[in-house]
Design goal:
- The chain is built from four helices and no strands.
- The chain is an all-alpha fold.
- It comes from Hesseltinella vesiculosa.
């Protein structure tokens, strides 16, 4: 099976932006968690503020 990081590195994540671009059944590409930005691959994994807070809990030494 493919890992999330492999999918990220190869532009294969099913982000909302990618799904909307492929005309999937989404009304918008805006992130459903923060409602601030399009959910791109980067936003999906690290740049969404609520998601970034989760990453910081797993890796406390990481800083923005």
């Amino acid at each position: 099976s493919l890992t999330v990081w492999w999918r990220y590195l190869h532009n294969k994540l099913p982000s909302r932006k990618r799904m909307v671009d492929r005309q999937a059944h989404f009304d918008t590409d805006i992130c459903p968690i923060c409602h601030q930005e399009p959910e791109t691959d980067d936003h999906l994994l690290v740049s969404c503020p609520p998601k970034w807070n989760v990453w910081r809990q797993f890796f406390p030494s990481v800083s923005p």
